[in-house]
Amino acid sequence: MRCANRRGTTSWTAISAGAVGLSTLLATEAFAGAFAIREQSAYRQGASFAGEAVCGDSVAGAFWNPAVVSCADGLEVEGSLSVILPQTDVTTDPFPGSLFGPGSPLFFAGDPGDIGEVGWVPAATAAYNFDNNWYFGVTINGPFGLATDTNFNHAAQIYGRKSEVFSLNVNPIVGYRFNDYFALAAGIGVEYIDIKLTQAVSPAPFAPSAELSGDDVGVGATVGILITPSPDTEIGIGYRSPVKHSVDGTLTIPLTAQLPVSVEPTLPEMISASFSHRFTDAFTLMGTAEWTNWSRFGTFTVTNDLTGLPATFLPFEYKDGWFFSLGGEYDWNDQWTLRAGVGWEISPVDDADRAIRLPDDDRLWLSIGGSYDWNDRLKLNFGYSFLTTFDTRIAIGPGNPLYVPPVTFAADVDANVHILSVGLKYRFGGAPEPVEEIVYKN
Predict the structure, then answer these.
(1) Interval 317-335: pLDDT, tens
(2) Which site in 114, 213, 264, 425 is 20 to 30 Å from 19, CA atoms measured?
(3) Which molecular function terms from Gene Ontology are attached (predicted)?
């Protein structure tokens, strides 16, 4: 595979010489645009992440806006676990001039099948108000990942079989509250990522798989502000910086070579802006707008570390991603709070560059959820979301940067997702009271 402006310079037969076209590095079936993971809070899941960058009654929003740590009362610890249940059926269609599509005498491999796999996403946040001004916290999340797995034999097997990505980001945070109206916070994020990708070395049935595996640790930053113009209104803006990774790993080509390789992808920055406003004692309206700079995810070079020369190119050519949501919560009584929300996500992947590993598309979010206060310290959060796409199609051929002549491929994608999240928040107590100075009199 090759960069879009280098068509004709590489073919899949180069695999025998050690240049495998692993053109979907880090790309897996995830559910926040491209391969990002949004499921970082059971509290926010129930409202389609409306209000994700403000406090409400949660500190988990520190993932999107570190200034949310300034809402802690004493030491607060919050964790969540989400299970993602995708259905992503990829059904091969005829493609003009296809050598391997339906109707062709060479169409022997069949469909990729249901490529989605169940994913588990844990997340944790701790926040502590040291005094009336200083706050400290930490978030532990997996911001990128999940997996896809096709049938072993299929008509697009040279474009991908199995993808596995694991990430872990630990982000210590320091926050400062200037007054009742304004707080600022920043943090340093240390991010580990591990990848394993396989794809067939040829379109022949039962062709062996080439495998790329590698890992890296990168560093980024977060910064955010929280504005509280009134006791009923919150406005939050958070920024997560790009993280540059230098992935060192191994490219294994069956019966041919095992090569040390490296590639330097930069994962995108993100800006989240949210608001919440309590209109009555019972009802609060929330909203979110989020931008992710996926357009920086263009084409990357995989380097053969033995020679220092390019082994191949990884063309993504993504666009910017956007997410918008609106939701509300209703205090049913002193213990129960109910939530609902709707969201619309504009994918960074479009018809021109959609891949078998990542058949992403614009999607609709529909969510419900709630909270139960067991007592003044312990809260249970839960949420459910249904996601669906519309008229998604893969077309790998001339014009698609993934295309390896002469293997064209076209397919319809029927995708929807069910997400269940549950979490607990525990407050250990208020901040230490200031020590009153003792004055001794003579």
Answers:
(1) 899 999 999 999 999 999 9
(2) 114
(3) long-chain fatty acid transporting porin activity
